[in-house]
Design brief:
heterodimer, A: mainly beta, 5 domains, 7-stranded mixed beta sheet, 27 strands, B: mainly alpha, elongated, glycoprotein (chain A), cilium biogenesis/degradation (chain A), signal (chain A), TCTN1-3_dom (chain A)
Amino acid sequence: MAGPRVNSFFLGNSSGVNFSIILSPVDEETGTLQLANCSGSKRAGDWNLNVTPGPNASKVTISLTRNLQLCLPNATDCCTAPLCVAETLQVLACRDSVVLAHLLIQAEIYANSSFTGNVSENATTIPNQAFQPLGSCPCDLTAGACDVRCCCDPECTPELKELFSKLCFTGVFGGDVNPPFDQLCSSWSMGNKPEWFPFLCVQSSLNNTPFLGYFYHGSTSTPKVPSFKIPSQTSPGRLFTGYRQGDPVMTEENEYFTIPQKSMAGQCVRSAPVAYLQNFDVRCLTSRASYKEGLPHDVRLNSGTGDFIQQSVVYRTITDPGKFIIESEGPRTAEVLCQNVTFAEHYTFLCKDKNIEQINVTIFLGSLCDGEILTQRFTAKFLSLTSTSATELFGNPGYQVGKPVRAANMNASNTSGSLNIWQPAGRGLCTSATYTPVLFGLDSFSGCTLEVGIDEDCSFLRGNVTEKLDSLIQATHVGKRNNSSHSDLDDWVKIIRLDPFNSNTSVSTGSIKGICRDIPANLNIRIIFAEVGAVQGVPRQEILAVQISYSTIIWQFQCGLICENTTSLLPITAAVQFIQVPAQPPVPLTRFQMNYTEFDCNRNDVCWPQLFYPLTRFYTGEPYSQCLAKGLFLAFLVLLAAVMNNPWFSELWRSSLV
Amino acid sequence: SLLQEILNASSQLPSVPLQLLVYVNGVYYSFYFVATLAMIMYKSQAFSYPDDFLAPDLTLLFIMAILEALRLYLGSKGNLTEEEAPLGLSLAVTVGSVLLSLYFLVWQTYVLRADVLLNALLLCTYGLESVLKVMAIAALVS
């Protein structure tokens, strides 16, 4: 049995040495110990002596062989008191009745305090949390026994506590669940005392502290399970007053008309509602296994006035499937399953005011086989019937996020222009890239790569890059508003161009091949806009200025292991940035207001402009009209009180009553 | 004769110090009431009151105000009309007021230092008043 044991070493040759252990009583009065002689044995009382001989030293082990569990008095073979063993032993090493070495052991062993009794079924009452913290002694883990190092344990007797009193757990775990708080008068050591501290510090005892539980006593209510359903417009003859900008287009059965679109997370949602006057152009990936048909095209749509219109569908076949299909590199089996699927759907809604007059759908079909990935394209365009061009003269005249920026080329006879950025395709080369118009409010960054040989002439490269980037900007002016008309020059803002520094003379690296300086490979389009007014609550935004600049890079031919005569890639990029400025410059501060911080609410907590805070514009808790109404009502009440206190009023009152 | 009666009665004048003290007590108590009410409101915002300990504090404050008004009225009336009964009743009510003041001094949920000062001063005033009332009663009885 493994119990308390102690090891020691007898140094020296242990041949012929007898080891013995003797229990020696201590004289009660004098406290002296009698030295023993060599007449002991290897067992004494509950103690055992074990010797492991070795060449130079022998290991001597003394072990206790009794049960150390604490038990009831009068029981046998266990400890009746916490202090179980208090004995003095002597270990002797004798050779031929001569004492060679002498080891004195004084043992004071306490009973094991682990609980081995029955677990009672009575539940402990949990005190009211508001008055007593649950777990006033968090380290009291065993019930019915003393937890070592837990000074707040009520089951620990004072003698036991003395053993570990210096090693008690501190803090909350040790039972200090009511730490002194800042507002106690006795916590003078707190550095940051407020000015009122001498009078408003808490003098009462620590039993009532703000750390006690603060519990909610309100009423509870069972929540209704929310039904996430589209609120159905049940009445069939409902007065449909037309579509406003952003309303979903509805079908005959009062369901949403859906076309696959891109969600905010970027993935394609197969049935997403279409918003009125919101054009979109999305590309969705699909394969043969995951292909799903959309809404059938014989569904009739609500035109806005209550009657329903049929979609006029035109079917076409794809001529160039390479633009849509990417073949995956899987193993090609002999038999491939192919299916006839829609490659692209183009919806054109012809609208007049708040109603849809006509819907034209062009659907491109093609065959999709197993192992191929198809990029489906869905576009929707809302056109006005009153004009044939793609401009909208209704709705908000200002720019809205997502609408293309209007551009015009005032120098040419045909004043239409465009502001584009790259739309790469295929491998991302500039030769196969197309353009996509710059959309208002959407900061974009796109580019394509140009293949450049190692012995490319630098000035030729510069010209090529500049020409390619210039082809994105086919305009000299940009429209201030969405409905800027070409005939009015006031509606347009001239594009400020910062052309790249054209250096014909700085090239001194002509002899070094494969490196070119000052290549204007990055185009920056900065569009500055402001919010000027609002139309029906929707803010109207206008473009104030457009600046186009170039950033230059040093192009270096990227060699592989050896510099072969292949082509290197040069990325050319175009970045669009929209900067919002306030429509009106802020009112300049006087020098007095700048020097005295009491007038500046940004630099000071308390400032003069906020003196009548609830009545000033700084208070944004309620609408200003409500604040003003309440203030005026209070002023009226004060006036009424003042008038009624006047003596002549009471006389008037009395005379009117009599 | 009438002159003798008046001269005899002049030895039993109303106690001026007691009247003064009653007046000062009235003024001080109004200040005390407002201050204690404000401090209870401050405590309820700054600290958390365990379950419904705020209601007893406020109730006892209002009871104390009523008792104080009663006590001062009886004391003043008894002094001016030179009758022992109101003075004695006033003394009895003072015992209740002292207990309530002790509550606010020691047994309140949170006792601030300002509470200690106000209540200590109030208790001193009560003590002094009680002594003067006993003296007045003794003068009237004898």
